[in-house]
Specification:
Blueprint (H helix, E strand, L loop, with lengths): L17 H6 L9 E8 L8 E5 L2 E8 H9 L6 E2 L9 E8 L6 H16 L2 E16 L19 E7 L3 E9 L1 H12 L4 E3 L7 E8 L20 H9 L1 E17 L7
Parallel strand pairs: 4-11, 6-9
Antiparallel strand pairs: 1-5, 2-3, 3-5, 6-11, 7-8, 8-10
């Protein structure tokens, strides 16, 4: 049922609120880890791949920091206290769950279980003051629509994907502002994004924008007059939201213990 999601040209995977993710235990989740194969990436490999289909999940040419970012819905700067190799050595990871068709959120729990079992990862939540972006409501108010009563089989949440010419596309089905902030920090921004909109409901919305940075080497923005505005402008014009730089308190994940993955 699920097609592989390729980084850069397909929908990116959604996020989870940090403290909720830390508190969840894999044993309490539905799908469980059946087996995981972890091996160093080949020297000639340079293209990162993330995808899942059925019971299989793959994350290739990825650091353990990137795996942890996905598993806990984090931006790289929110992981503190990890050793140097954690964000330097790349691995090819193939995971098999014991249940068919896990959701994105369930895959995150499975990966948390893998990190605990194979890397003996132990973490705790921690608050730190650091440079971030603050997501807030613009002066004219939000422009998002309330959710429909019936969404069919579409999975709820916020998705941010990348396309050619630095295209960024956002789609929310009953998504929250916390999920939007988490996706922005994971996919687009170079620092954490803190939700201070005060909006507690869920919304349906779409947004098209031009990224603040190229995703691939040599990638350039769309030069045509129809090119969407940069992300900061698109948030204001299309969603009625602001994204402003600020130094503020951010929820982080502090690494207490981690070991290099054992041989398969």
């Amino acid at each position: 049922m699920g097609l592989f999601r390729r980084v850069g040209f397909a929908l990116m995977m959604a996020t989870m609120v940090l403290f909720r993710a830390v508190a969840q235990k894999p044993a309490d989740a539905g799908p469980r880890l059946e087996v995981a194969t972890i091996k160093p990436s080949a020297p000639e490999e340079t293209g990162r791949f993330v995808g899942w289909e059925g019971r299989k999940f793959m994350m290739h040419y990825s650091t353990m920091s990137q795996v942890t970012q996905f598993a806990y819905g984090l931006q790289a700067k929110q992981i503190v206290g990890a050793p140097a190799w954690f964000d330097a050595t790349t691995y090819d990871i193939d995971v098999l769950a014991d249940t068919a068709e896990p959701t994105r959120e369930q895959w995150k729990i499975v990966l948390q279980e893998m990190l605990s079992e194979r890397l003996h990862l132990k973490v705790h939540p921690e608050q730190k003051v650091m440079p971030a972006y603050v997501l807030s409501v613009d002066k004219d108010g939000p422009k998002m629509k309330p959710p429909m009563d019936e969404e069919g089989t579409v999975e709820v949440g916020v998705r941010i994907g990348r396309g050619p010419h630095e295209l960024v596309f956002v789609k929310s089905v009953r998504g929250s502002m916390g999920e939007l902030a988490s996706e922005l920090q994971r996919v687009e921004m170079d620092r954490p994004v803190v939700d201070k909109t005060g909006l507690t409901g869920r919304f349906n919305f779409e947004m098209r924008a031009t990224s603040t940075k190229p995703f691939f080497a040599g990638e350039t923005p769309d030069p045509s007059d129809d090119a969407p505005p940069i992300v900061f402008t698109a948030l204001r014009e299309q969603l009625g939201l602001r994204l402003d730089p600020a130094k503020t308190e951010v929820g982080c994940l502090a690494v207490d213990r981690v070991e290099k993955p054992s041989d398969n």
